[in-house]
Design brief:
single chain; 373 residues; alpha+beta; Rossmann fold; OB fold (Dihydrolipoamide Acetyltransferase, E2P); 2 domains; 6-stranded mixed beta sheet; 5-stranded antiparallel beta sheet; 9 helices; 21 strands; 24% helix; binds adenosine-5'-diphosphate
Amino acid sequence: MANVELREVTKSYDNQGTLAVKPLTIEIKDKEFVVIVGPSGCGKSTTLRMIAGLESISGGGMYIDNELVNYIDSKDRDIAMVFQNYALYPYMTIAENIGFPLKMQKAPKALIKKRVKEVAEILQLTPFLKRKPDALSGGQKQRVALGRAMVRQPKVFLLDEPLSNLDAKLRVEMRAEIVKLHRELETTFIYVTHDQTEAMTMGDRIVVLRDGHLEQMDTPINLYESPKTKFVAEFIGSPQMNVFPTQLLYENLDVVAVSFNGKGVELGQACKDRLKTDVMAEQIYAGIRPEHLILTNETDPAAIRVQVDNVEHLGHNVNVFFTISDRPEALAATLAVEDAPAVGDFIYLKADANRWHLFDRHSELSLLEPLSL
Ligand code: ADP
């Protein structure tokens, strides 16, 4: 059990001033499941490895349980790390692999045996304890790696893309298993992934990194409902949010509408109420999620007419792709399967007027106050 705090932590690999991690301040609470997510190269692994003590810290303070650990050896930080490639010892049995960290600590044999048995039971590995890693499936190997982390009862679990070597179905199963494990162990988990779905489904809170800096740290629902930046808006959600450059339209100095495919469409009252008080911009980015575009007909005053370029069938619904005047790349609308149009059809769509996201064209920061949930 431990909280983990990064205060203005930086990392420079080349000592020439380029920072792989820019001053990063995050506070992870005791027993929290925090996911660090972001595109490849944004500094996720570096951050995790600095927490683990596997990478030196160039600046700032790293605290575990309110204790400065910058100069404390990895093995003395009471953390356990699970890697993507499992890192199991091929010549040892599963029992020996799981018990290895305790053996290194010179724990009594009887204790090792007892802990290995307990851990194997939680992870449903008991039938495999005498086997070698080669005789196990990918998912089972990953559970052994988790077991080896659990056996020491560390204060913090660090997991670096632990599921990326598994096939899609197994990944979904292991996602649920790891969340369950976190609930049972009541320990702090810090989990790195580039996969936003993994982040959204597993994390109590999510840290979104971009180019070594923090874009937003929030709950999954807040990231979805109230992204602070255009980057977060586009990173969280699948298919990704439709974001395009456009204009805000004013009436007597009040924002009333947004231009959507050349047409002024009114913003909903709830959306207008959330506008930051100092908004004066005309040129903005507007965003609407595919699931907040609704099929309508030409008599609807909010309707825009678009031609369907592509249709993706997902079973229970369809993603329909089309382009608008403000953006050359395709936009998406998620529609019910009964409403699926054919490629080439002209359809009428409107945005749910209260689900618009608006961003400053230059800073790319949201122009809306966060939704209070
Ligand atoms: P992520 O885990 O998000 O993919 P990393 O933390 O691995 O990102 O990398 C962040 C940045 O630091 C990248 O630009 C990467 O090239 C650089 N980097 C990572 N490890 C090293 C290293 N050992 N030496 C030099 N640069 C590195």
